[in-house]
Amino acid sequence: MTGAELKKGTTLCTNLVGRARLRLRCDGPHKHTFRGGRDRRGVYKTRFLQTYRPKLCGLIALRIVDTIEEMVRSGQGPTGWARSHEKTVRVSAWSTTPSATRPVGVAILNEESARGRAPTLEDRQLSLYLHVDDTVILADGTTAGRADRVMHGVADGLQEAGFGVDDRSEDRQLEKVVGYELQRRPAKIRLPGVKSVLLEDALLYLVRAALADTRADMGRATLAGPSLYPACCVQIFGHLS
Hints:
Elements: H1 54-74, E1 105-108, H2 109-114, E2 125-131, E3 134-139, H3 146-160, E4 168-169, E5 176-177, E6 180-183, E7 188-190, H4 193-208, H5 217-224, E8 236-240
Parallel strand pairs: 1-2
Antiparallel strand pairs: 2-3, 3-8, 4-8, 5-6, 6-7
Helix pairs in contact: 1-5, 4-5
């Protein structure tokens, strides 16, 4: 249906308007010539499918546009004028600060951001950012290996709770996190060069076009352009997924 080289199921969890239209099955106009399994390094050969095919991106983009149009029409949504009858979701409170009985504090950036706060990384104050199924531990680098130790502690705790943590990356192994490249000194999280070029090309295409199908082209440009809001800038990283 979307032109993938391998027949492999994909699950989308979403509340987008028109999401029922994303319930698709292969209609058979093309051949699946690629086989699964693992390569010599033990990496799944289907890993390349983690990048959605262009046709699937286009279908998701149209549903995003439908959702935005519905929010504008109805006044609902995060910044809409219509008052919702649903209860407001409370922000969790798992963040901690160092004390006499707690040698190290960990601020959950997802919580702090929802409260409009920006914690400062210090020797005894770390931060944690949760992005879907990825977790990043951030420290100021004063104590060597501290981010790695906290990262392993979080991973061990998740496993004890019944979650599977198959991938742990220590500071020295990391080259990127949640789609961003790492610059060590001065500490910075930056948009990868390839993604920057793709985003620029997508925007220039729309600007140069005499006519643009806003329901398709604008949506595709939105998907082509990654999020431009990195969580924070740090020096030492620990990562698990």
